[in-house]
Amino acid sequence: MGKVCSFILIAFILAVSVSEVLFAEPASLDSEKIGNIPRDERKSPDAWAKVFDSVHGFIEAAYGPKFSGDKLTQKNDYNLLEQRLQLKVDYRPQKPAWLASWNPEFFYKGDLLSDEYKETLRYQIREVYGFVSPLSWMDVKLGRQILTWGTGDYLFINDVFPKDYESFFIGRDDEYLKAPSDAGKFSVFSRLVSMDVVVIPSFTPDVSIRGDRLSFYDNFLGRIAGEESSRIFTEPAVQPKNTEIATRLYRNLREYETAIYAFKGFFNQPVGIKNESTKEVFYPKLAVFGASIRGPVPSVGGIASGEIGYSDSLQDRSGENRLIENSGMKYLLGYERDFPKDWRIGTQYFVEQMLNFDEFKTNSQPGDIPRDEFRQLLTFRITKLFWLQTLEASLFTFYSPADIDAYIRSRLTWQANDRWKLTVGANIFFGKHDWTQFGQLEGNDNFYIRIRYSF
Amino acid sequence: MKKVLSFLAIVFMLFVSVFWTKNVYAQDTQNGKTAMSEMLLAYYYPQTDAKSEISMRIVNRQGQVRQRRLTMLRLNQTSGGDQSYYIYFHEPADVKGMSFLVLKHPGRNDDRWLYFPAIDLVKRIATSDKRTSFAGSDFTYEDVSGRALDDDGHELIGEENLGTQPCLVVKSVPKRQGEAEFSYRKFWIDKTTHLSLKVEHYDFKGKIYKVYETQEIQTIQGTPTITKAVMKDLENERYTEITMKNVSYNVGITSDIFQERLLRRPPRQWIGE
User: Fold this and answer.
1) Residue A35 has what DSSP assignment?
2) Which residues fall within 8 angstroms of residue B13, CB to CB, at 6 or more apart?
3) Given this model, what pLDDT does residue A23 score?
4) Which of A56, A294, A301 is the closest to B124 by Cβ?
5) Residue numbers in A near B65 (CB within 8 A)
6) DSSP state of A326
7) Which residue among A27, A344, A418 sits closest to B92, beta carbon to beta carbon?
8) What SS3 state is found at A298?
9) Cα(B36)–Cα(B171) distance, rounded to whole angstroms?
């Protein structure tokens, strides 16, 4: 209860300062007074002011109580209670001349997180990289960075980069769905075709759901588990041979964006079992080959996209090893359209096909999670903006007719002014079975509220 | 016989007058379209390329102010035809670093992409509705990048001085009624610069509800350029002031830069900071 009080206190302080900001900026049409003075003249040329000026970020307080829950996790009443400070700074040196000619940029973004759920104070570097163009047709980005490609909306086929689903499910900002990679990204550009090559020397897995904050289906226990889940995770060693490589070749054909992808590395989820008796799981080797296209739909309007990927499970190509995920095909079709008065809808149809399904069935043992050859997933997004785009209401639904489960993600974001943002939302899970993707999360339904001040 | 003659004379006169009015009307339409086309060229297409820093102050009924600061690059692919736009947001803080790429094709939907640096996401934006607000301001996307000439019928309805400036007054009516939120607009187009000095928007009841006014014109590199303007929403008692700074033309923008790369790596030589 003390946590709730501290949250309310913080919220109150934030609210008071909101009202201060709101009233502190009187406006008049007579813009000659303020509006017309160029910013640079308003600021002192002081060097420290300049440094301070280049630092941006936000502070945020977040609280996410659980609806009722299954009382299996570390804290039973809530799964989100934290305060966060994010700072980012951008530096573009003009000297020495050889470097300046490469148009260098150094970027840092870090979060200081006071996580009352975990009762820790954590410092996380989200991004820290150098970005240069050694040649007019080449960019190199080295360091910790967020990597994204592909066409899906919250669904990923060729985007093999790490995700943080825990953040996604408990109500953190969408930014935190993407986890950073320590990588080098080499890009070359030409009129014919452009290419990205991403080299990731040290494997970064998805942030796994481990039962401490979100309960899930633990296949070793054969039921929904929380804190008592005791899986042991083994990550691939940092060795040259374990370097992950992801590439994308892309070009626009008229208004259509096309791309092909290739990846060699590891599954981001621990879909391999090393030792059943000691509950040891690992990240098996994986290769992915795929393609995507995206562009406008003639006459009807809106944007359609299609993406396909073949996942080659390199340590179980025959599908006979029941302890390692099989190879598979993934297919995605998407469509998004806007309507007058700031309405926007999007829908996706996603199919995951397990290859070597017969081998899977033959080798399955009692207690293994039952699977279908085809798993279908539908998503539906609806967004509407109000009050001159300062209030956004959005609803995102995942529904799987094959698994008979669903996940509803609703959110209301109010941009009170240029600095203050208030977000409330809910994450609700449904499922017939305990072991399906969303069904296993049923005990984690939550509501959340976030208040953010950006600077 | 007399009666037949007088009847014929009346018919002839009617015919002539109808023809004459029709012709005059056609001429007004032609003049209206010419004036509008000159305005579009003067406002959206001057020179080959342009760079400008745009500040917007959005003020609502309660007097609360929101600020937007962005840099815009524009390149004409053909005069009066296809254009490429790139917009980089500097302020407010929560959208800093976001960028926006528009390939404008009069006659069909634009191609638009938005880049979110925090998640490294290049998002394709559906563009069926061009009448949505631009960045939460009282300006619409169409106000920023131009409405196609042929989307409206244009009629020259008079000449009027606005202050000391002689202007052509043009009434523009959407050809597909209901496609825009106005039933028609009235433009005051400066005879010398061809820039619009005032635009009134009328709703379907014929009531004026939105007014655009040019507040300052500067001649930059020989080109008369609007450097300050306001869009007032009379119904909701809101307005947005827009100020253009550091405008320069022919800075050397080339068409090959308008690609995904531009979104992920902002061109610092033009956008600074």
Assistant:
1) T
2) none
3) 39
4) A294
5) 25, 27
6) P
7) A418
8) coil
9) 10
**The residue to which tokens 């066409």 are assigned:** A151
Q: Given an 8 Å threshold on Cβ–Cβ distance, is A454 in contact with B92?
A: yes
Alpha carbon distance B2, A205 (integer Å): 103
- Helix/strand/coil for A21: helix
Who among B94, B239, B243 is closest to A454 (CB)?
B94
Instruction: Give the other-Cβ count within 10 Å of A264's Cβ.
Output: 17
Domains of chain A plus CATH, in order, are: 2-25+59-454 (2.40.160.10)
Pick from B95, B102, B124 the residue to mutate for testing the A interface (most A CBs within 10 Å): B124
Give the residue on A whose Cα is nearest the Cα of B53.
A38
B2-45, pLDDT tens digit by residue?
677 777 777 776 666 665 555 555 667 778 999 999 999 999 99
Q: What is the pLDDT of residues B81-97, one digit of tens each?
A: 899 999 999 999 989 99
How many contacts, defined by CB atoms under 8 Å, are there between A and B?
A: 129
- Chain A environment of B88 (Cβ under 8 Å): none
How confident is the model at residue A54, as a pLDDT?
A: 85
* Weakly modelled stretches of chain A, pLDDT under 50: 1-2, 4-5, 8-9, 12-43
* A23-37: pLDDT as tens digits: 334 444 443 333 444
Q: Which residue of B has its CA nearest to A344?
A: B126
**According to the model, what pLDDT value does residue B94 have?**
87
Alpha-carbon distance of A1 to A21, in angstroms, equals 30
Q: Locate B184 and state its tokens.
A: 């028609």
> Mind telling me how many Å the CA of A230 is from chain B's nearest CA?
32
The pLDDT value given to residue B142: 87
Mean pLDDT of B156-184: 92
Q: Closest approach of chain A CAs to the CA of B30, in angstroms?
A: 30
Second-level CATH architecture of B29-271 = Clam (2.50)
Backbone angles phi, psi at B22, to 5 degrees: -60, -40
Q: Are A39 and B69 in contact (CB under 8 A)?
A: yes
Where along chain B do its domains lie?
Answer: 29-271
Strand partners, A423: A413, A450
Which band of pLDDT confidence, cut at 50, 70 and 90, is reported for residue B179? confident
Q: From the CA of B120, how many Å to the nearest CA of chain A?
A: 5
- DSSP element (H, E) containing A8: helix A2-23
ipTM of the complex: 0.87
CA distance B72 to B51: 6
Chain-chain contact of B265 with A131 (C-beta, under 8 angstroms): yes
CA angle A163, A168, A174 (to 5 degrees): 85
Q: What is the pTM of this model?
A: 0.87
DSSP β-ladder status, A181-188 and A420-431: unpaired
What is the full DSSP assignment across chain B? Answer: -HHHHHHHHHHHHHHHHHHHHHHHHHHHHHHHHHHHHHHHHHHH-SSSEEEEEEEEEEE-TT--EEEEEEEEEEEESSTTS-EEEEEEEEESGGGTT-EEEEEE-TTSPPEEEEEEGGGTEEEEE--S-TTSBSTTSSSBHHHHH---GGGEEEEEEEEEEETTEEEEEEEEEESSTTSSS-SEEEEEEETTT--EEEEEEE-TTS-EEEEEEEEEEEEETTEEEEEEEEEEETTTTEEEEEEEEEEEE-----GGG-SHHHHHS--HHHH--
Quote the minimal CA–CA distance from A287 to chain B in Å.
23
Tokens representing B245 are: 């700074």
